[in-house]
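thoughts on my protein:
***
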Amino acid sequence: MTSPSTTSLDTAPTGAPTGASAATARTAAAHWPAGSRTASVRATTRTLATGVTVLTCGRDESTHGVTVSTLTLASMKPPMVSVALRQDSQGLAALLAAGTFAVNILGGQQDPLARHFARSDRGEGLTRPGRGVWAGHTADGVPLLGGAVGWLQCRVTRTVPAGDHELVLGLVTDARLGTAETPLLTFAGTLHRLPAPSAPGPAAQAADPSDDTIRS
């Protein structure tokens, strides 16, 4: 994509709009990145700071987990989330086969889990990365990771093709806060931990889900 020419913020070219519209046009031109669209998009979107979650589905030894940073709230009435997964990914295949999934919102100290579930050789089952990291399960039996900021129980409602990804929409059927005080974030391709809050919030008073399950 050809980058538009930049213009000094102090002067406008002859015949250009004046006033606020001219200032807006000049500012947009001055900050538009040069280079190919693909490179610019990749570089710019890496500056988005997003939360890190692990989606889990299945049960027992068929439990599957995948790390994502594309989860977002799509609707409050009804409560729905959306997540983009690569069309050829094992995470998408497992999610669609299961039909239900859990969102584990990782805490600031859970970067090892984020890295594990991002690996292509992560495998399946409760022994990966170890039974000790699991704590309870949803009402339909999906295992949950302990020590998270919170959990969402979801049911796949539809998928929408989006380029080389598939946008999965999930209806949130239950939710619970966890014990972690701060979330794990990703920025510029690196995981980041936030400092602990000065005063404990509601999440610090909640407990991990018990083996009694999260009820719908």
DSSP finds four helices and twelve strands in the chain. The first strand starts at residue 50 and ends at 51. Residues 3 and 32 are 7 Å apart (CA to CA).
